[in-house]
Amino acid sequence: MKSLLVFGGNGFLGRRICQVAVEHGYQVTSLSRSGRPPPLSASWEKEWISEVKWQQCDIFNAQSYGQHLKGASNVVHSIGILFEDSGYKKRIRGKSLFTAPDLLKWGANPLKNDPKFTYDMMNKQSALNLAKDFAKPENSNEEARRTFTYISADRGFPLIPKGYIQSKREAEMGLMRLEESIRPIIMRPGFMYDENFDSAEHRDVRSHVKSFVETLNCGNQLLLRGKIPFVNELIRPTVSTQQVGRAIIKNIEDPSFEGVCTLEQILKT
């Protein structure tokens, strides 16, 4: 049976990767710090959530997840941070829009929270350490080249420190150096939203931001015809977590695909 290990499988994107994989017939195991399934957003989610094995691990402790890598065919790294302050994740799960002062507060010193909660550790080192462990010969299943999918980013955003995108690009380069042992798949989504929360009844913070960004993008195409490079760099299309999940499965199942999957490619899935 097709199998998939998703590190960070109970997160915002990770849960949809797990869901899409289950719907495509994969045996899915989610590994996360809590080991718990995500909260239900609707009663129908019980069906796919019950199909996933929810396991606990410490991404910085190989002994906590090593047994799961043995014989594994496909691994997804869906762990990362947008700001070096754990408080932002709680705020963005809310229902009301945040303000610019809130965003600025999210740049707080990570040492006040967790010394590992930095761009270098969370976005880069956690992925490279995991990939190197996965690439070890003793973990091989002697089948077709195993896949390692990394959730990177299309580019940086205003108000977000450049260390965010820098850590992503450094991780990408490190993963490509392992291509003789694993097939690296690097996903570069833009701003993500969940289709389940994109209705008038269930709108969350991300849905509000998505509407704002899409309005800007529409104005750029209609009024400026997308002819100003600087504006095109700042204003990019949004993408749903479900689309990203489908693109990941498509790339895993295409043995000829490796390397970067751009936002434009994801949107075509």
From TrEMBL:
Gene3D superfamilies linked: NAD(P)-binding Rossmann-like Domain
Pfam families membership: Epimerase
Record-level GO cellular component terms: mitochondrion
GO MF, one example: protein-containing complex binding
InterPro entries hit by this protein: ComplexI_NDUFA9_subunit, Epimerase_deHydtase, NAD(P)-bd_dom_sf
Residue ranges annotated for the NAD-dependent epimerase/dehydratase domain, each copy included: 5-77
Domain of life: Eukaryota
Protein's recorded name: LAFE_0C07822g1_1
Natural source organism: Lachancea fermentati (Zygosaccharomyces fermentati)
Lineage, uppermost ranks: Eukaryota, Fungi, Dikarya, Ascomycota, Saccharomycotina
